Amino acid sequence: MLGTTILLAVRSILRHKLRSFLTTLGIIIGVAAVVTMVTLGKATTSAVQSQIAALGTNILQIRPGQGFGRGGGGPRPPDFEEADVEAIREQVAGVTAVAPQAQSAATAIYNGANWSTTINGTTNDYFRVQPWPLTSGRIFQPAEEQAGKAVCIIGNTVRQNLFRGGEAVGHRFRIGNVSCDVVGTLSTRGQAGFGGDQDDVVIMPIKTVQRRFTGSRDIRLMLVGVDAAYESSTVQASVTDLLRERRNISGGKDDDFNIFDTAQISATLTGTTTLLTGIVTAVAAISLVVGGIGIMNIMLVSVTERTREIGIRLAIGAVAREVLMQFLVEAIALSCLGGIVGLVIAQLAVLVLAPVMQVPYLFEPQINLIAFAIAALIGVVFGYFPARRAAALNPIDALRHE
């Protein structure tokens, strides 16, 4: 009986191809929109988390000034000193390492090739705070750091542009007016939404950069690694108190430095992205309801058009349950067809939009199955009333219908 019912439903759908397509259009748009929005939302969240992870997890970035600028219209806040680095390292519980940084920009030249890049002066603690594996070579030796030797570790972008992707360790190139020996090359990190190309960097001992490039012992940035066993907010509060004391900030005066907590930023951005994805998905889901109303409307029209056919079926022995099942199966078939087409369109849309948005392509089986199940459920919910109406027709009245 079920096979006959399905066959009749399919024949009815194929008999009115254009009407069937227009009926499923709302479901197609709804499913495609919901799946696309949710998938891209998850991909965006994944991209944000990857970018934050590239900056390092459980890290406090400390800069002079309020926010990322100087803040206000007053004088520029003083930079940090080496003594500040030592104080944080020794006096704050939960700190694993502190990496001071002094930055400059210069043009690197090697064998006729030149490349403008960023020079990052730091210590070996930099590689403890935010692990960055080397593809070859080594990190700095204690004697090189202490003496401020002209040695460097280069990022992949610099290696590609200066050494044409070849081996760089053991070679010497000129950066600014300094000849630098390459002792290591870094693994690829790629683009970061907060700082451009992370691989476009030359890392040198901080004393070298201070003496040969910046001309001062000032430290513009400190990276503080936080032990996973400690709450980053607690460590941040301790660092704040210590720096306020060392920088003679008393009473209700504002801090003249800012602390950027990567763990908190990651949680905030992820939560915001998830919330926005939920809102957009809810708006897109409205079209599913509209599609369900369209199915109910067309099925009511179909019942009216096929009243005489229903009367004949009832007159020759069909029971009301069989008539109800026929129209219900027809509604479910339309919804499922729309769901399948919508899922295909959604995957094509994600394939096209993911590279444009610079997010990874993700295939989410769970959301696809849920969207298809919702489409089928809509067919049941919105198809039941027309099917019930068809099953309740009086055979005599139905046969008299013109």
How many strand segments? 12
Give the fraction of residues assigned to helices: 55-70%
Main β-sheet: number of strands, strand sense, barrel status?
6 strands, mixed, barrel
Total helices: the number is 13
List the helices and strands in order: HHEHEEHEHEHEEEEEHEHEHHHHH
Strand numbers in spatial order across the main sheet: 2-3-10-5-7-6
Share of β-strand residues:
15-25%
Helix/strand-derived category reads alpha+beta
Low-pLDDT ranges: none
Oligomer: single chain
Spatial separation of the terminal alpha carbons: 29 Å
- As a whole number of angstroms, the C-alpha radius of gyration is 33 Å
How many domains, as an integer?
2
Instruction: Return the average pLDDT rounded to an integer.
Output: 83
Q: Shape, please?
A: elongated
Q: What this model shows, in words?
A:
It is a single chain. By secondary structure, the protein is of the alpha+beta class. The chain has helices at residues 2-15, 17-55, 82-91, 125-129, 142-147, 156-162, 206-214, 232-246, 262-305, 307-315, 320-357, 365-391, 395-400; strands at 59-64, 95-110, 113-122, 134-137, 151-154, 172-175, 178-186, 191-192, 196-197, 201-205, 221-226, 257-261. β6 (172-175) and β7 form a beta hairpin. The longest helix is centred in the last third of the chain and has 44 residues, at 262-305. It is elongated. The model has no long low-confidence stretch (mean pLDDT 83). Residues 20-241 form the MacB-like periplasmic core domain. It is found in: Cell membrane. Residues 283-395 form the ABC3 transporter permease C-terminal domain.
